[in-house]
Automatic annotation (TrEMBL):
Ranges of Basic and acidic residues composition bias in the record: 1-11, 23-32, 39-58, 359-370
Superkingdom of this protein's organism: Bacteria
Protein name: Uncharacterized protein
Low complexity composition bias: residue spans: 113-136
Keyword set, alphabetical order: Membrane, Transmembrane, Transmembrane helix
Regions that span the bilayer: 81-99
Protein's organism: Streptomyces purpurascens
Region (Disordered) location: 1-75, 112-151, 330-378
Length: 378
């Protein structure tokens, strides 16, 4: 046997100790979880030395990475802590977006209009619509969001929804006369449908003061309806009124949409047609937080006649025709008030005899009949 050491032994003896130490650490890390192997005598020796150095606090720095500064280690710790805190909210946000992609700005998935567009106000109605408004998200109304799930969410608030057309002379009727007729009609719509006193069931004095007392029968009929409402004389045919003992407004906003047109009248004056829909969010007066909506569409034909040729009161309107369609109000109750139905208290009764209609559909003409029907949405 030769006394010359083997090539393997010579190569091993020429490897520095720090290299061997790093090799052992890397090997232990890379082979963790694999089948255990019996370490060599050299490996056991180096391992034992490393263990003793660690016990004395003398472990050498990493071979490839170099020393780890306390600052770097702190940043890593903070990042781990931050992700641990943000993990749950981020997961919730991802779930919400998956259920409703429209929550993301800009509509990245091409699902339709962006959230900003969906909530932006509609321009004023300048012509008769050709179809009903599109479907809305089926969200129930609440006290905080009384118009949720309604096309009226994008309608104007109250008086802002009654936009007058530009006044122009019609035949012998001057532009100023036309403008006066338009403004008086607007005042009548506001007083009869938006005035807080009228809506909460009080006598609509402001609206009555705009009507010509010389018009035969009208004021007498309206006063009779307000004093002793009945099936033949009910003030809700002209005024939007709720019983304050039964109903409270859900907020201060009534949504309004419609248009106004004019032409030469039959009494040397100007005739105005107003076609407007009003949406009233309400809750019960018993303290309930449940919200529902009543939708009232009114078509009103009035004329500002020429007092120089006819026996009329200057500055007062003559009503030629008025018609209404009411969505979500109990039928066959003629006590002078609108009676909204709430989903939780909708009573089972006889099937409605009238047609099923969309109360937001302003493309339809109003029929003379007022059969009790069903609305497709509120």
């Amino acid at each position: 046997m030769s006394d010359k050491p083997s090539d393997d032994h010579s190569s091993a003896s020429e490897i520095p100790d720090d290299v061997w130490e790093q090799f052992i650490r890397d090997a232990e890390r890379d082979t963790r979880g694999s089948a255990p192997k019996e370490p060599s005598a050299r490996a056991r020796m180096v391992t034992e030395r490393l263990r003793r150095q660690e016990e004395r606090g003398e472990s050498p720095p990493g071979w490839r990475t170099g020393p780890v500064s306390p600052e770097t280690n702190g940043r890593a710790g903070r990042r781990r802590t931050l992700w641990a805190v943000l993990g749950v909210p981020v997961a919730v946000a991802v779930a919400l977006v998956a259920l409703k992609p429209s929550l993301l700005p800009g509509d990245p998935f091409g699902t339709g209009e962006s959230a900003a567009a969906e909530a932006s106000p509609l321009p004023a109605e300048s012509a008769a619509p050709t179809a009903a408004p599109g479907a809305s998200d089926p969200e129930p109304p609440t006290l905080d969001e009384p118009f949720a799930g309604s096309p009226a969410l994008r309608w104007a608030d109250g008086e802002a929804g009654i936009v007058l057309p530009e006044a122009k002379a019609v035949g012998p009727v001057s532009k100023d006369r036309v403008e006066q007729a338009l403004k008086l009609t607007r005042k009548l719509l506001v007083a009869a449908n938006l005035d807080p006193e009228t809506v909460r069931g009080e006598r609509p004095e402001a609206a009555l003061s705009l009507l010509d007392p010389k018009q035969p029968g009208l004021l007498d009929d309206l006063n009779t309806a307000l004093r002793a409402p009945s099936g033949t004389h009910d003030p809700v045919t002209m005024f939007s009124r709720f019983d304050p003992d039964e109903i409270r407004p859900a907020g201060d906003v009534i949504k309004t949409r419609g248009r106004m047109t004019f032409e030469k009248g039959s009494h040397a004056g100007v005739a105005v047609r107003a076609d407007y829909t009003f949406v009233y969010p309400v809750t019960r007066a018993d303290g309930s937080t449940e919200v529902t909506r009543t939708i009232v569409r009114r078509v009103l034909d009035v004329e500002l006649a020429d007092p120089a040729h006819y026996r009329v009161t200057p500055g007062r309107l003559t009503v030629r025709k008025y018609d209404e369609e009411i969505g979500n109000s109990t039928c066959d109750v003629n006590d002078g008030y609108l009676h909204p139905e709430f989903p939780s208290r909708r009573e089972k009764g006889p099937d409605p005899t009238g047609p099923t209609t969309d109360p937001y559909d302003r493309s339809r003409s109003l029929d003379d009949g007022h059969a009790c029907g069903t609305v497709t949405r509120t």
